[in-house]
Structures are given as C-alpha cells and as structure tokens.
Amino acid sequence: MKPKHIKEQRQKAIRIIRKRQREIYQKIRELGYIKLKEPIRHGWFKEIVITENVERYKNKAAILELYDCIEKSFWGRTKEKADKQWFHKISKHLIYKEFPTISKKQFNRLTYKAQAMCTVFSFRSENKKIKKRFYIRIPKGAYKIKYTRAYITHSKRIDPELESELDLLEQQLYKSGYYEIWQESYWKNYWRTPQEHKQKFQVTKQLNALKKYSLQDIINDNISWEIN
Q1: Contact in structure between 74 and 89 (CB atoms under 8 Å)
Q2: Sign of the CA dihedral 97, 105, 70, 43?
Q3: What span, in angstroms and rounded, lies between the C-alpha atoms of 103 and 120?
Q4: Which end of the chain, N or C, is less surrounded by CB atoms within 10 Å?
Q5: Gyration radius of the chain over CA positions
Q6: Strand positions, DSSP E, 88-199
Q7: Contact 55/143 with Cβ under 8 angstroms?
Q8: DSSP state at residue 97
Q9: Where does residue 222 rank: exposed (0-12), middle (13-18), buried (19+ CB within 10 A)?
Q10: Which residues pair with 132 in a beta bridge?
C-alpha cells in the first residue's frame, strides 16, 4: 500500500491538535471562578446612573426602558483613561450630548413612549457610509455621570495540567512544516466556506437591488429590504 504523502499526514496531525485544543478550551471555561476573600481595586468606571429624581417624571417607565438599553459604564485603569474611553465613544458617534446613543435595531425594539424620547441623526462612518443612530432626550435631572471604583471580586480557576498541555499543543503547531499548513487551512476555513460564499452572494444581490432607488430614498431609508 502506498504511504500517505507527508502533507496529508501533517494535515491529519493538525486536525487532531485543533480538536484537542477545542476540548481543552471548553474544559477551561467549565472551571468557573473563585470568589476572592477581599475585592481588589482595579481601575475606575465612568458611569451613568439614574437618580432619585426620576420618580418625579410621569414617563418614568420610558426613562428606565431607555436606560436599560444603553451602555452605562466605561472602564479605565485611571480616571483619565476612563475619560479617554468616554471621548473615544463620542468620536465614534456612540455618545451624543453627554449621553450614549442607540442603534436603529435597538430603537425598533422600544415601546412607542420610549421611541418618542429619541431623535434620529445621521453621520458618516469610517468607510464613508451614511449611518443613523438615535440620541435620547432623558431629562438631565433624572441621571448623573460619576466615577466609581472598579473591583475584581472573582478569580479564574486555573488547572496547571490543562494550561501545560495547551502550551505544548501550540508549540507543535509552530513547528517547521506544520505552521504553514495550519495557517493555510485557517484562512481557507475562515474566508472560503460555503456559508461565506453564500453570504457574499446575498450581499452583492442586495446591493445591486438598491440601484433602482435614488440616493435620497436610501438616505431617508425609504426602501424595501424584502429583497429575495
């Protein structure tokens, strides 16, 4: 019987290694966490909190509904770095007028009263495409922005044997002759799967279907997305 080609043998070995890695990752996730006896300080949160004044407003339920769907806190190792994260979100149009904005998908899930407290605005993303988000008109007396100490309260369980085996498997993937095949198979699986080809075809089909609409209709979202 003709022996298998060396490349086929290495491909089989890589598949076995990757399968074992996935099993180990699953076991590591299942280890869970250990609660620390004493919390450890770990940076700061710049966060938005609802104040007691919210009880004064008739639309309290809508305010709380909107509050539940926003990103409430931004972490940094120092207050300055927490501020940096805050301003980074502002530059991405995710914070408008000192309050986080929501996407169209989030907006569609809101009740009518909550939607009435939102205002749409358009902006150009990094790829120059026009996008829409919604800023929220919550009364300023109903919330405040403050800094809060961040703490680590739990520690990840570690199994030395699993970690050691994981390192050993990774070293085998970096061996001469194995690394090239591993990388080739990784990118092939990532970009060239039938699902990726199907998704790319559907996107292209939808983009071609948009050609029948005017630019103003697309900007105003006056189009039908039921494209088969």
Answers
A1: yes
A2: negative
A3: 10
A4: N
A5: 26
A6: 95-96, 99-100, 102-103, 118-124, 130-136, 143-156
A7: no
A8: T
A9: exposed
A10: 122
Task: Name the one residue in this structure whose structure tokens are 């090239």.
Answer: 180
Strands across the sheet containing 33-50: 73-76, 33-50, 143-156
Cβ atoms of residues 136 and 72 within 8 Å: no
Tokens representing 63? 């305010």
In the chain, the largest separation of any two C-alpha atoms, in whole Å, equals 85
| Two tokens, residue 120 | 């749409």
What does DSSP say about strands 33-50 and 143-156: parallel, antiparallel, or unpaired?
A: antiparallel
- Report the DSSP beta bridge partners of residue 74: 46
CA 118 – CA 66 distance, rounded (Å): 9
Residue 215 backbone phi and psi in degrees, to 5: -60, -40
**99-147, pLDDT tens digit by residue?**
888 988 899 999 999 999 999 988 877 777 888 889 888 888 899 999 9
Helix (H) / strand (E) element for 27: namely helix 6-31
Residue 148 · residue 83 · CB < 8 Å = no
Q: Which residue has the tokens 């070995």?
A: 13
pLDDT-flagged residues of the chain (< 70): 1-4, 186-198, 211-228
Vertex 84 angle, CA 79 and 88, to 5°: 150
Structure token digits, residue 11:
């491909």
Q: 5: helix, coil or strand?
A: coil
